[in-house]
Amino acid sequence: MTVEQIHVAEYVGLGWLSAAYARAVDPSRGKLIRLLLFVAGVGLLDEVAQRWLPGRFFDWADVRLNLAGGIAGLVGQRLTRRSHGVADDL
Fold first, then answer.
1. Cα–Cα distance list, 14 to 3, 60, 61, 73, 85 (Å)
2. pLDDT tens for residues 17-34?
3. How many H helices and E strands in the chain?
4. Which of 36, 41, 69, 74 could form a disulfide with 8 if both were Cys (CB 3.0 to 4.6 A apart)?
5. How far apart are CA 37 and CA 6, in angstroms?
């Protein structure tokens, strides 16, 4: 597995867990934009932090991959809930 594939998998997990946590803590609707901003922010901070790590560098392509993984996790969580007949509240 490449580093990029690992990052996408990590952000799928982040998106999935973020959606599950948001549903448990705040049952109101309209959280999708906030969750997307959260996942995007974590991905951006992750890349910015790499500027100070030896052998690592900031790359906008990685930010996009992180966001794509987060979106996949959010969507996957939503689809799983629908397939089990649970009301969608994002």
1. 16, 19, 18, 7, 23
2. 998 888 888 767 778 888
3. 3, 0
4. 69
5. 21
Q: For the segment 55-86, what is each residue's pLDDT rounded down to a tens digit? A: 888 999 999 999 999 999 999 988 887 776 66
Length reported for the chain? 90
And the tokens for 77? 């969580």
The span from the CA of 19 to the CA of 55, in Å, is 33
What's the whole-model pTM score? 0.81
Q: Give dist(CA 70, CA 51) in Å, integer.
A: 22
CA distances from 20 to 31, 63, 64 (A): 11, 23, 22
The pLDDT value recorded for residue 30 is 76
φ, ψ at 58 (rounded to 5°): -75, 135
